[in-house]
Amino acid sequence: MNEKYERQMKKGVLDLLVLKLLEKEPKYGYQLITELRDKSGAVFLLKEGTLYPILYRLEEEGLVESRWSEPKDRQVPRKYYAMTEKGRQTLPEIADVWRQISRGIRQVMEEEEV
Amino acid sequence: MNEKYERQMKKGVLDLLVLKLLEKEPKYGYQLITELRDKSGAVFLLKEGTLYPILYRLEEEGLVESRWSEPKDRQVPRKYYAMTEKGRQTLPEIADVWRQISRGIRQVMEEEEV
DNA sequence: TCTATATACTTTGTATTACTAAGTATATTA
DNA sequence: TAATATACTTAGTAATACAAAGTATATAGA
Fold it and tell me: Which of A61, A18, A87 is nearest to B105 (CA)?
């Protein structure tokens, strides 16, 4: 992909995708990176330096909350993130912003392409 | 719309939309603002301070070129922007970046929604 | 045993960009 | 005459994806 444009176009949607992945159940950071990679068909290959600050920001905004796992059987400790009530209210709003913008883009792009 | 997210999600796509609108014929800045507003269904309401710097950047990158209109019959002078050869090569590349990213987002969003 | 790799989280710094706000100037309309 | 629409410019700000480096543990291979 054209890296320059790729980077900019991804701005803003990561919050949406992370929230979406947390919708059903709590997950930890590294898990989110691999799920995002797999489900997006390797379009979203996040580095830790990208994802973790997003989680910190979402937590600061009150959309998610975290707790450390008590590490059983010699397991590396993990920080699980779960959606808050506010997060559940906000997710559909953000999803709607995405829908409107992508529709606007489609309309401009498909214009006169009949 | 949720302004905070709206702003970020629009990042990067404006170059694409502006190039798309210039594909068929040269246009001037103010014209691009109104066309973008109308064709997007008022999703993209650009201020001059948003559009013109985009055009300067695209020109600096060699994707478009500008010329001032010689103002006939007491008309305000206009700066027309036209696609360059390089611009015509780059447009499909950027459009493809958009397609891949939006497909990746759709896949994550639609996951388990059956 | 040693080493490399995968897992897992943190932090600092940088580049890019949409937007606000202000300014300049002309033409048209009320 | 004033207000509005047209048309372009510029300076400054905030937000964020990413690179890069660091810390630490578990596991697999040589």
Answer: A18
